From TrEMBL:
Stated family: Belongs to the YciI family.
Transmembrane spans: none
InterPro entries: Dimeric_a/b-barrel, YCII
Domain YCII-related: 1-106
Signal peptide positions (record): none
Name this protein carries in UniProt: YciI family protein
Highest taxon listed in the record's lineage: Bacteria
SUPFAM superfamilies (alphabetical): Dimeric alpha+beta barrel (SSF54909)
Pfam families membership: YCII
Amino acid sequence: MKYLMLVCVDPDLPDEEAPGSPDIEEWVRDTDAKGIRLIGNRTRPGSDATTVRVRNGEVLLTDGPYAETKDLIAGFDVLECADLDEAVEVAARHTMAWNGVIELRPFWVDGDDD
């Protein structure tokens, strides 16, 4: 099962790393070596985002993130895991699980009705 792992910064938390948080470079090496992390990267800040909407046939562009959110997306990874339990275990070892927020979203699978 593929999961999109959104790596988010929590602006309410201090910028310093939480004590005992895992090393991100080690996490990347480990998940890459096991074939779990298929791709990943940092993203530019929300201030560099462009939101695209079409209303009544007109393309509307807005600078900034698509929604007013407290958590700011800082990066993403695509994971290949056996199930949600494995995806949670992998995400919990990511530095930002300790210093921010990780959101896991499963990919649609052909034949899913929901």
